[in-house]
Design goal:
By secondary structure, the chain is mainly alpha-helical. It has 3 domains: 397 residues; 410 residues, no CATH class; 274 residues, no CATH class. The chain has 12 helices and no strands. Keywords: Coiled coil.
Length: 1190
């Protein structure tokens, strides 16, 4: 038995040793795993520190983002201000546009007035001329009456007294009527001069207004440029901010990627830790199983020990040792479990942190999206601002253009006004000259009567010439009818040609369809060529005949034009003889008409030159016509020069005849028969005039008929030209079709050549077959058939070769024809170039002639301006005296009116002073109240700073308590019972959460109260500032009105001094002395009033400056209130975030009841630490209260 027991004990010892070895290995493995877990904890702590650092960096980024937001807000405010300024500028521009439109309307009205004035002046000139004509008639009547008086004196000496009295009365009546007409005309002229002066004054005022508007527009353009520079600066600042935001976004994205990588690594670590925890749990389960087995064995051993009481103390010692070892293992297992629980808690915290990070990232992404949207809005706003600026620039450019146009129109109006004045002066001079010239012309009348007898013979000759020209015109009509018939025949032939071309095109299509009938094609082509050649010859013959007819018509037109020129010259000589009786103005008018006719003809010649470039064949004829027109112009100018020379000759002859008339007048007293002869000659002259008129009418009708015929011929020429152009076009189309036929023939030739080559190849093959089949004697019949086929094929090949040669010859002939046509075209182009050069030379000559005409017109205008200037100077001297008297009366009435206005202004100033003093008193009281409120706010701010300092001290105490708690936790050796600790911690946390919520609610209420107070105070201050600004504007407006009145008073005083000087010259010395004393008194009173007004103005300006300084101070206070509001809103947001985090912690506490109090406390402590780093304000009080609670 003992041996068995010993053996059993040995077995048990061996089992115990093996079990101890297993335990030692398990302990070593667990220690190794604990070391690894510690290392992992260290790594996790490092990760947490990095994460905290990342949070700090993110907080900094948030701060920077807030700064950028604030800057963006500032920029938005700036852009809004710029937009407001732009709107204001646009409104000003609109107002200026409206003013400009008004000025334009006024100018249009003034232009209409000027036109009416000019029309009236023309009417007056006509009336003056009529009056002069009446004067001439009356003078003639006077002369006749004088002659009759002389005759009656000789015949009836008895009735002299009666006839003389009757004649005197008639003369007096006529003179009185003339004087009345002259007076009415002078009055009308004076009224018109007054109107002109008033309009000139209005123009001067409008000039001043226009200059003021231009200065305003320049100032506005400078302001717009300043705004543009500011906008460019803002845009650059925005671009910089955008670049910075993009860089920050890139950095944040990089940090996001890093954080995501870190989160992924943490998740991987968590998965590894979870796997290791599973392994540890499995090992723990195995250890528990082994423990149960050991306990069973121990119980068995105890039973055996009870059975065997002879057990030794050695076994007891071993059992004690094993029990101690088991206790140590249990302690280690408990430590491992606590560490595992801590790791689980940390894992939970990490998961929560990851969730928070994800939320924060989502929020930041949203913020970025919002920022991007804001940036896009800003860009859109900038684009819209740029568009508005561009529109404003365009509007400004348009306004400047309109201003320049208005300025130019104004200068033109001034120039026109000066020219009108000069014209008036010239007209007066011309009137004087005309009156002198009338006297000379009356003397020349009698000389010209004799000259008319000579001209009557010439008229008869011209009548005969006209009859001859009429006969020639009838012949030309016949010729033109024949030409028209020929042209119609040409049109019919052209239509026939077009029909033949259509038939030929149809035949060509049929020939293309039938390619096998080569001989028919060849014959048809030959026939078509012959037809085309015949048609071309016919066309050439007809063109030659048409050209010959056109040349004949041109020659006849030349002869007719020459004859018409001679007739017109004779007619102009007759007209000149009549017009020499009238004034020299009639000659100038005729010259102007001739110049207009020449200008028209020049325009027509230019238009003809433009048509010359389009036309080819009729260019020579048109050149001949131009040469004829140039000759006519030269002839006309020569005739005008001749007429001038003849007029000079006539004037000299008239002077000679005037001397003869004087001698004849002396003889008239003695001869009455001569008077009768003169009357008869006058009657004959009148009859001759009537005949001349009839002849002129007939000549004009004949000229019109000739012109109509010429126009018809020109139209026929144009139609012939168009027909020729159409024929050219048809020839071109035929050439194109011929080219197409050539191409098709070439293609057919190529196809025939290909067929020939194929047949040759077939022959060669047949010959090869024949050579191979010579051996076979049986196939001799086939051989003979093959020979026959070869002969037939050779004949066919020869025919095709002949056709090829024929087609090639035809193609070569067609090519030659095409080359000939091209050479013709080149020659025509050369002729065109020559004609263009000739046309350019002709244009240059016309330009030179026009320059000569312009110089003549300029000389004429200068002479007129000289006359008008002299007339205007005379009129100014007459009107100056009247104007001075009217101004004196007007100035005196204005002085009385302005004195009344001065009294009214003084009363208004007194009223304004009283209102200003009342406003100042109310403003001073308001300022005192506001200063008190500001002092109270400052004291509140100081209290808040004191509270913040106290909270900082509490935070330091909290940190010290944390250190003490850490030391206390290290000193603890044995853990308390988990149930009691968990219950106490739950109660403590619940009470802490309630306290925190209460504190948060109290803080939020305080913040809302502060916000309401600050907003109400700010609104009140803003209302006060607006009231002050409105008062200041009102005062400035009143000051401006006072200054205007002051300036008006000074001007009135100047005018009064001037009028006083003039009146002193006019009045007597005694009245002048009395008036001087009264005026000195009035001047002293006015100077005293000026001094009083200046002192009042100074006082008002000082008060306005004080008000503006107070407004600035109040604006600064408002800005301080706004800053306080922003800080309060930030504190609100921070408290809201804290409350959310606390709620989340409480929720996590309810879900994880197994977490110990120490870990929860550490978690809350970490949150508070982070928030202190980020914000460091009111959160210190919360952390201090939490520490006090714990």
């Amino acid at each position: 038995m003992l041996g068995q027991m010993k053996e059993q004990l040995l077995v048990k010892d061996n089992a115990i040793k093996a079990f101890e070895q297993k335990l030692s290995k398990g302990l070593k493995d667990s220690e190794h795993k604990l070391d690894e877990l510690r290392q992992q904890n260290v790594q996790l702590n490092e990760m947490l520190q990095r994460y905290q650092q990342n949070e700090v960096s993110l907080a900094e980024i948030d701060n920077e983002l807030n700064r950028t937001k604030n800057e963006n807000d500032i920029l938005k405010i700036a852009t809004a201000e710029n937009e407001r300024k732009l709107h204001e500028l646009e409104e000003e521009v609109r107002s200026q546009k409206e003013q400009l439109e008004r000025h334009q309307k006024e100018r249009a009205a003034e232009d209409d007035r000027w036109k009416l004035m000019s029309a009236r002046e023309d009417e007056l000139t006509k009336l003056w001329q009529e009056v002069q004509a009446d004067n001439k008639v009356q003078r003639q009547i006077v002369k006749r009456l004088e002659s009759e008086l002389k005759i009656s004196n000789e015949r009836n000496q008895n009735n002299e007294s009666e006839t003389i009295s009757a004649l005197k009365t008639e003369l007096q009546k006529a003179n009185e009527e003339l004087e009345e007409k002259v007076k009415t005309l002078k009055d009308q002229l004076a009224n018109k001069e007054k109107e002109l002066k008033s309009s000139a004054n209005k123009l001067a005022k409008q000039k001043k207004q226009f200059e003021n508007q231009q200065s305003r527009i320049r100032d506005q353009s400078v302001e717009i440029e300043m705004l543009r520079t500011e906008l460019n600066k803002h845009e650059q600042h925005l671009t910089n901010l955008q670049n910075e935001s993009q860089a920050r976004e890139h950095e944040s994205e990089a940090e996001k990627t890093k954080l995501k990588a870190q989160v992924q690594s943490i998740l991987q670590d968590i998965t590894q830790i979870q796997d290791e925890m599973r392994i540890v749990k499995e090992s723990h389960d195995e250890l528990e199983v082994e423990k149960l087995k050991l306990e069973q064995r121990i119980e068995n051993m105890q039973r055996e020990a009870q059975d065997t009481s002879d057990d030794t103390q050695h076994w007891r010692d071993q059992l004690v040792d094993t029990e101690n070892k088991l206790r140590l293992v249990e302690l280690k297992l408990q430590k491992v479990e606590t560490e595992n629980s801590q790791l689980a808690e940390r894992n939970c915290l990490l998961e929560e942190q990851n969730n928070r990070f994800e939320k924060q990232l989502a929020e930041r992404e949203r913020q970025k999206d919002t920022e991007e949207a804001n940036a896009n809005d800003l860009r859109l706003q900038l684009d819209s601002n740029e568009m508005t600026l561009r529109k404003l620039n365009e509007k400004m450019s348009e306004i400047l253009d309109e201003n320049s146009r208005l300025h130019n129109t104004q200068e033109l109006m001034d120039h026109d006004y000066r020219s009108l004045q000069d014209k008036n002066i010239e007209l007066e001079k011309e009137k004087l000259m005309a009156e002198e010239f009338q006297i000379d012309l009356q003397e020349e009348l009698e000389q010209l009567r004799e000259h008319k007898l000579v001209l009557e013979n010439k008229l008869r000759e011209t009548v005969e010439q006209l009859q001859q020209t009429e006969e020639q015109c009838a012949e030309q009509k016949k010729n033109t009818e024949a030409i028209e018939k020929e042209l119609k025949e040409m049109i019919i032939a052209r239509e026939r040609l077009e029909n033949q071309n259509q038939i030929m095109s149809a035949e060509l299509n049929e020939l293309r369809a039938v390619q096998s009938d080569d001989e028919k094609l060849h014959n048809l082509m030959c026939e078509q060529k012959r037809r085309i050649e015949d048609l071309e010859h016919e066309l050439i013959d007809r063109e030659k005949s048409a050209k010959a007819n056109i040349e004949i018509v041109d020659k006849e037109n030349k002869h007719l034009n020459e004859k018409l020129g001679t007739l017109e010259a004779s007619r102009e000589e007759l007209e000149v003889t009549k017009k020499e009786i009238l004034l020299l103005k009639s000659q100038n008018e005729e010259l102007n008409r001739d110049l207009c006719i020449l200008n028209k003809e020049l325009k027509q010649s230019r238009y003809d030159n433009q048509e010359l470039e389009r036309q080819l064949t009729p260019l020579k004829t048109l050149e001949q016509e131009k040469e004829i027109s140039e000759k006519e112009h030269t002839t006309l100018r020569d005739e005008i020069n001749k007429l001038k020379e003849e007029s000079k000759m006539h004037i000299e002859e008239a002077q000679k005849k005037a001397l003869e008339v004087t001698e004849i007048r002396h003889q008239l007293h003695n001869s009455s028969e001569i008077n009768e002869k003169l009357e008869n000659t006058e009657l004959e002259l009148e009859k001759m005039r009537e005949l001349e008129k009839k002849l002129r009418a007939n000549a004009a009708n004949d000229a019109e008929l000739a012109n109509q015929k010429i126009h018809e011929l020109e139209e026929q020429l144009h139609t012939a030209k168009s027909d020729i152009e159409r024929l050219h076009e048809s020839n071109d189309s035929i050439q194109v079709e011929m080219d197409k036929i050539q191409n098709k023939n070439e293609l057919q030739v190529q196809s025939l050549e290909v067929k020939i080559q194929q047949l040759k190849e077939h022959n060669e093959k047949l010959q090869q077959q024949f050579a191979s089949q010579k051996v076979d004697g049986e196939k001799l019949a086939n051989f003979e058939q093959m020979q026959i086929e070869n002969e037939y094929l050779n004949k066919h090949v020869k025919q095709l070769e002949t056709e090829l040669t024929a087609q090639r010859t035809e193609a070569s002939s067609q090519l030659q024809e095409v080359q000939d046509l091209r050479e013709k075209l080149k020659s025509l182009q050369c002729e065109l170039y020559v004609l263009r050069e000739n046309a350019e030379k002709h244009d240059a000559q016309l330009a030179e002639k026009q320059k000569e005409i312009d110089t003549a017109e300029n000389e004429r205008t200068q002479l007129r301006e000289m006359l008008t200037n002299e007339h205007a100077e005379l009129e100014r001297q007459i009107v100056h005296t009247k104007y001075i008297t009217e101004q004196n009366d007007a100035i005196q009435s204005d002085l009385l009116h302005k004195q009344h206005q001065l009294t009214e202004v003084e009363q208004q100033l007194h009223d304004m002073k009283a209102e200003f003093e009342a406003v100042n008193s109310t403003h001073v009281t308001d300022v005192v109240v506001k200063t008190k409120e500001i002092d109270s706010l400052r004291s509140e701010l100081q209290q808040i700073t004191v509270e913040l300092n106290a909270k900082a001290q509490l935070q330091e105490e909290l940190d010290a308590l944390r250190v003490e708690l850490a030391e206390y936790n290290q000193l603890k050796e044995l853990p308390l019972s988990q149930a009691t600790v968990e219950n106490g911690q739950k109660l403590i946390l619940a009470s802490d959460a309630e306290n925190l919520r209460r504190i948060n609610e109290a803080l939020q209420r305080e913040l809302e109260d502060l916000k309401h107070k600050s907003t109400s105070e700010i609104t009140e201050l803003q209302q006060e500032i607006e009231d002050m600004q409105s008062n200041a504007r009102h005062m400035t407006e009143k000051l401006a009105e006072v200054e205007k009145l002051h300036s008006a008073l000074t001007t009135q005083q100047v005018f009064s001094n001037a009028t006083a000087d003039q009146e002193s010259l006019q009045d007597t010395r005694e009245i002048a002395t009395g008036g001087g004393i009264s005026k000195l008194k009035t001047e002293e009173l006015l100077q005293q009033e000026k001094a009083e007004l200046a002192t009042k103005l100074r006082e008002i300006m000082n008060e306005v400056r004080d008000v503006s300084e107070r407004n600035l101070f109040l604006e600064q206070q408002c800005e301080n209130y706004l800053i306080l509001e922003q800080s309060n809103e930030r504190l609100k947001l921070q408290n809201a975030k804290l409350s959310r985090q606390l709620d989340e912690t409480l929720v996590s506490m309810q879900h994880n009841e197994g977490i110990t109090a120490n870990t929860e406390f550490e978690y809350l402590k970490n949150i508070m630490f982070q928030k202190q780093k980020l914000y460091g304000g009111r959160e210190g009080s919360i952390s201090s209260q939490l520490s006090n609670l714990y």
